[in-house]
Amino acid sequence: MKKTVLLATAAVLAAGVAQAGTLDDVKARGELICGSNTGLTGFGAPGADGTWTGFDVDLCKALAAAVLGDASKVKFVPTTGETRFTALASGEVDVLIRNSTWTFSRDTELALDFVAVNYYDGQGFMVKKDLGVTSAKELNGATVCIQTGTTTELNLADFFKANNMTYTAVNVADDSEGQRQYLAGACDTYTTDASGLAASRATMADAENHIILPEIISKEPLGPVVRHGDNQWGDIVRWTYFALLIAEEKGITKANFEEIAASTTDPEVKRLAGLEGDMGAKIGLDNEFAKRAVLAVGNYGEVFDANIGESTPIGLARGLNALWTQGGLQYAAPFR
Amino acid sequence: MAYATETPKENFRLSMLIYDTRFRSMTIQIVVLILFGLALSWLVNNTIDNLAAKGKTFNYNFLWVRAGYDIEQTLIPYTNDSSHGRALFVGLANTLLVAFVGCILATIVGVLVGVLRLSKNWLVARIMTVYVEIFRNIPVLLWILFIYVPLTEIGPEPKDFKVTQPMIDALAIEAQGGTLPPDAVTTPAASKVLFDTVAITKRGMFMPKPLLERPLGSFSIGDFTISFSVLAALAVVAASIWVNAQLRRKARVVQETTGVRPTTWWKSLLILFAPLVLLLIAMGFHLEVPAFPVTEAGVSQGFNFQGGFTISASLLALTVALALYTGAFIAEIVRAGIMAISKGQSEASFALGLRPGRTMSLVVLPQALRVIIPPLISQYLNLTKNTSLGIAVSYLDLRGTLGGITLNQTGRELECMLLMMLIYLTISLIISVGMNIYNQSVQLKAR
Lengths: 336, 447
Hints:
The complex is a heterodimer. Chain A has helices at 2-17, 22-29, 55-68, 84-89, 104-108, 151-162, 175-184, 194-203, 231-249, 257-263, 267-272, 279-282, 289-297, 300-307; strands at 32-36, 45-46, 52-53, 74-78, 95-96, 112-114, 119-121, 123-128, 142-147, 167-172, 189-193, 210-212, 220-222, 225-227. Chain A is of the alpha/beta class. Chain A is globular. In chain B, a hairpin with a 2-residue loop joins strand 1 (199-201) and strand 2. The interface between A and B is large, with 50 and 42 residues.
């Protein structure tokens, strides 16, 4: 009897641990669950009416449009620096698009896959102007506010050690607490990804009294993350993102897509619009997935400009995130 | 004997396992045991399968790997080059520090409030009631934040203590008899308190650090350094307490034979403190006051005080909040204990001519302890476990190091969680055993 029970248990387990098929789960649910920031203006933050907006949020919406045909069918689950990877690994979220840095140990040890880099970033420092500091190398002995559970924690230790300086760390749980402590003067400087600093600064009442120091002390390639092992789902996320990049490269925007698709002779644009080839079928979607993604949020440049670009309060330049044709690093593999 | 052998021998049937009361309880227990074993093996199996499915292994090798992160408040030496295992011990020491200080403070608060709540003074009794009800009925996390946020928002920053070049210039003009512009500043915005030794800032309290000029050396066990100076001081204190106990015993003997207790207070003071003070003077004891490094002109340099030690705002807030919160519960336990002692005891004590204060300390409280200790143990355990809320105010205790940053940087969720649970369990069991031993010593002894 005991044997049968054990066998039955094993059968239940085998069913329970089967993890492949995120695509099927999402389709069956009719909703994409996207792990997002707890609130970083410009990248992913809920508005007063509860709707999420931001650079990372738009990628989630594009993904929902590609997979489910409706950009509004996304549920955003706020995750902190500490909880995000556990939330992804346990299946609580389908994909994590939340300013997460691609590193060796996260890729291997945590059993995650970084499928693309949607923002090339680096770690910087913000100080109050009246502190009289103009370089991060003058921060010897300073008290530094830092978000716990992030790569920035390790970069900080390395940077101060390399420059023979000491510091006191105040480990805060999230961005809002970091800002509060920094503004209150509980620390001299706040360090996180430079994009995050710009976003934080934009929300401060006296933004002109704060400066971001010129030193960028690390490489922080931020991108969408999925679980190891479900390669089809990884491909879907990667190519949805690449579709936005290729759209920008080809000069396709949300507004002119239909028009260009009707008149174009460029085979790659035709494939993007789903008029040629069977790209969709190869990743378990229909042929118009890329078109729907672009129509939902616009091309990469449009998403960038609308959320964090120079016309927004955050005011980030394209810099490294310009297309490769314009001297940046954003480069999509050929859509063929 | 003869009768017993004649009892007809029953044949054992399977149904007897359920219907025969002699076997039934055994049957139930065995079934429950099997079910429990199955549930346990299912859990373990499930874990192993899930780990395999995720391609993860289960081992504790990460404890020997370089941690790479820094900790604000440390009791034992630690740098970012230390291992994750060492970070665990830093966190553990931080947890124990809050638990230890918190328990002592909570007991003091609890006993005071519990006694005062029974006071005949209407106002005092009502104020204590309000305190107890407010603290007991609001979640402790809110209290921690409520105390922490003002600590980091109000008060000066370290830079407000700095002497700047314009201040020096202004003083020089003043010394030469010149007139200062009306907005000139000659002294820093904030100054240290307690004879210019302690700086209270938004970042915590910068305290003077006791240092020895002629320490007695130290030895190391593994990674941990033990100082002979501390051991010597502890030995001297222990010896003083023992000698003092002898003195009091002799005084009691004299009191019992002659009826007059000899004066001992100044002898006690001398025995308790003189040897320690002498030892400290011999070792060259002095205080290192926190201060900004200054240039030759007297201008303060740097961002923070140098020297001394820091009690961070998070440590302060966490300890105070836990002590006040748990103190409210202890107050109720103390009040219940006192009320459990029959009124006749204090009436008898008054009849013997004891003053109310001595009645409380000599007659009522010792008896009340029997009622107080058992629930007090669970309050100590609660406080110890609640220290894990320190993460909310950036206090890196065991939950913050092992269960926070280490877990996150290494991705060893299961290992870290299991180890952390085991450590909290061990701490709680040790407290429980210690308090139970104390409890036995205050229980009624059957003679």
